[in-house]
Structures are given as C-alpha cells and as structure tokens.
Design goal:
The complex is a heterodimer of chains A (about 120) and B (about 110).
Chain A: E1 4-7, E2 10-13, E3 19-25, E4 31-37, E5 43-51, E6 54-57, E7 64-66, E8 76-78, E9 87-94, E10 108-109, E11 113-117
Parallel strand pairs in A: 2-11
Antiparallel strand pairs in A: 1-3, 3-8, 4-5, 4-9, 5-6, 7-8, 9-10, 9-11
Chain B: E1 4-7, E2 10-14, E3 19-25, E4 30-38, E5 45-50, E6 56-59, E7 62-67, E8 72-77, E9 86-94, E10 101-103, E11 107-112
Parallel strand pairs in B: 2-11
Antiparallel strand pairs in B: 1-3, 3-8, 4-5, 4-9, 6-7, 7-8, 9-10, 9-11
Classes of the chains: A mainly beta (about 120), B mainly beta (about 110).
C-alpha cells in the first residue's frame, strides 16, 4: 500500500491564481480531511469528508473548496490564492466506525504540500 | 473551549534524559487523546494515544499520563535518543461523529548526544 499520497510536494503561486492540491489513499478509508500547518499553530482542519459525496467545513474553510467523487481521492481547490494561504498542507485519512472493520481513531497523514503564495 | 494548549514550544534534552511535554484542555467532550510525531519534511504519524478511562499508557520508552480531573495529559520519553528529535503534537478528539482532531501548537524536541 502507498498509503496517503499528495501532489505536488512544492508549489509557488502568485496572488489570485488558482490550483488544486491532490490527495489519494489506497486504504479504502471512509474519512478524509485536509489540514494546514503554520508555525506555532499546530495543524488546523480545513475541510473533511465522511464518504464519497459528503463533505463539511472544518475550523478554517474560507478560501478553499473540496469535493469527494470517489473513496480514494479528495482534492483541495484554492480558487484565488492569497499570501495568507502560504502554508504546508496535509491530507489525512482514517476508518469510519460504520466501516464494518475494527475501528481505530488513528489518522494517517500524507507527506504534505508546501505552498507559497507571492 | 475547543483549544488544546501545549507546552513547552521547544525542548532540549541530553541523550539518556527524560523528555516531558504537557497539554491541557477545557472541553470535557473530548474522548481520545493522541500524540503525533513529525520529522522534518514528513507528515505527522501517530506515536501513542490514550482514552480518558485510563490514567497511564506505556509503549516502550513512551508514556502518556492522563489526569482527567485536571484536564491535563503529558508525554514522557524515557532514555531520550537523538533519533527522537522531532516535533511532537498533542491532540484531542470530540466524541461522536467524525474523528475531528484539535491539535496543540507543537513542541520541537532536540536530543543532544
């Protein structure tokens, strides 16, 4: 299993540009989420999904859109990038209690995307 | 009320010493308290976790101590090694529904040989 993969690893954008951060997992996890990591602030939840077709907002959703058309993929879209969105972005996945398997709260994180907005 | 406060921000320990990182919370609806370890350039990875029905959990050199009445929990790393040098995050999960984690700000640990 590759686990959780993210692309790209690094990205530089100009203010106002749009882009999509890709996230995929091959563990058949129902739950997926996006976090941003900023110095001194830990990880903050942006958006999450409890299954294909179902998404919801986290702590810091403004400026980001998500969709979940398949179990495997959970892309994060920045429609008009701003310097305040300069951060490291992590995607994570985990099982759901309704998945029919022994449940664990463990979240599995991808390697991250470092985004700079100029 | 959903905050998790973590201290210290940074910690320097000599090889073989004990590293201690503390976290405090307010929301009594939290039901799962994990610690994540993150190496530079990598994503966080679960290190150890505890539920509030126990006061201590030990896995090898890593121990979580949990004080429900004080709403505090801590990570102890015994016999700290240079390979333990990383950033450590405590977190807490609200009971019910999606396993939404609230993270502390992180502690950067450096273990000197």
């Amino acid at each position: 299993n590759a686990g959780v993969t993210q692309t790209p690893k690094f990205q530089v954008l100009k203010t106002g540009q749009s882009m999509t951060l890709q996230c995929a997992q091959d563990m058949n996890h129902e739950y997926m989420s996006w976090y941003r990591q900023d110095p001194g602030m830990g990880l903050r939840l942006i958006h999450y999904s409890v299954g294909a077709g179902i998404t919801d907002q986290g702590e810091v959703p403004n400026g980001y859109n998500v969709s979940r058309s398949t179990t495997e993929d959970f892309p994060l879209r920045l429609l008009s990038a701003a310097p305040s969105q300069t951060s490291v972005y992590f995607c994570a996945s985990s099982y759901s209690p309704a998945g029919g398997r022994p449940y664990t709260d463990t979240q599995y994180f991808g390697p991250g995307t470092r985004l700079t907005v100029l | 009320q959903q905050q998790v406060k973590q201290s210290p921000q940074s910690l320097i320990v000599q090889k073989g010493g004990i590293s201690i990182i503390n976290c405090a919370y307010e929301n009594t609806a939290f039901d799962y308290f994990p610690w994540y370890q993150q190496f530079p350039g990598k994503g966080p990875a679960l290190l150890i976790a505890i539920r509030p029905d126990v006061s201590e959990k030990k896995e090898g050199r890593f121990t979580i101590s949990f004080n429900k009445s004080a709403k505090q929990f801590s990570l102890h790393i015994m016999d700290s090694q240079p390979g333990d040098s990383a950033t450590y995050f405590c977190a807490a999960k609200l009971s019910g529904g999606y396993n939404k984690l609230i993270f502390g700000a992180g502690t950067r640990l450096a273990v000197h040989p």
